Amino acid sequence: MPPSENRLLSALPPQDYARLTARMTDVTFEHRGNAYRPGAALDAVYFPRCGVMSSVMILLDGSTAEVAATGGEGMLGYSTFLGATRSVEDVFCQIPPCVCRRLPAAEFVAEVARGGVLTAIVHNYTRSVLATSAHLIACNALHAVNERCARWLLMCRDRVGADEFPLTQEFLATMLGVRRATVTVAAGTLQTAGLIAYRHGHVKILDRPGLEAASCECYAAMRGAFDISG
Ligand SMILES: [Zn+2]
Questions:
Q1: Residues with Cβ within 8 Å of residue 22, at least 6 apart in sequence
Q2: Does 147 share its domain with 134?
Q3: Residue 33: which domain range?
């Protein structure tokens, strides 16, 4: 089955869609495959059609925390239209396969400068990312790991469009910026409550309304910021 279309591109009028996608190529990222590494040139932008890409900050001591998860609702490299030339984050495929439409950054920047429909879409998307990032800062500072764990699983679920996806506890700890043992306790609590099943590197959401109730308010707020149809 071919991957579904990226929802930012789907919002384009037919003529713009045809003109722009004709200049794009499909690339597929497998697990841990990098779109950008920290400090690397932002030479292209990507519009995911399936899967989930993670944007992760790596600190000097090697510790990491996810700052964004991007699926078919979003894009990677949008900051190039603001003049960014290098990535500050490690951006890689978290849930494969992630098929993305790729456009050279120079062509993307020129297109946004035209002031057409894509410009409005990208501006709107940027506002959503900024609002979500602000919310994420407050969430990470103030909310309990159990709530954040539930929120993160739900956000992944929406982007994958399925209740089951591959995920190790070690990876979940990396994404949440906490110790592995802390994630084990949090995931154990959600599993004991019958909300998720966790085994062999896969997580399955058993009770979505229950998991939403276990999440902090941030899930609903972050979900509302994007066009997520999952
Ligand atoms: Zn929160």
A1: none
A2: no
A3: 7-138
Q: How much distance in Å is there from the Cα of 156 to the middle of ligand 1?
A: 15
Q: Which residues of 170-192 are buried (b: 16+ CB within 10 A; e: fewer)?
A: ebbbbbbbbeeebbeebbebbee
Grade residue 228 by pLDDT with cuts at 50, 70 and 90. Answer: low
40 CA distance to ligand 1 middle (Å): 31
Does some domain include residue 37?
A: yes
**Rounded distance between C-alpha atoms, residue 11 and residue 121, angstroms:** 8
Q: What residue type is 46 in one-letter code?
A: Y
Residues 6+ apart with CB under 8 A from 156: 52, 69, 94, 95, 165, 167
Q: In the listed set 109, 138, 167, which residue is the last one of a domain according to the structure?
A: 138
pTM of the model: 0.91
**Rounded to the nearest whole angstrom, what is the distance from the C-alpha of residue 137 to the centroid of ligand 1?**
9
**Residue 229 within a domain:** no
If pLDDT is split at 50, 70 and 90, which confidence band does 66 have?
confident
pLDDT digits (tens, 9 = 90+) for 165-183: 988 888 888 888 888 899 9
Query: Cα of 170 to ligand 1 centre, how many Å?
Result: 21
Structural domain tally of the chain?
A: 2
Q: From the CA of 25, how far away is ligand 1's center (Å)?
A: 37
Same structural domain, 43 and 96: yes
Residue 138 Cα, ligand 1 centroid: separation in angstroms?
Answer: 7
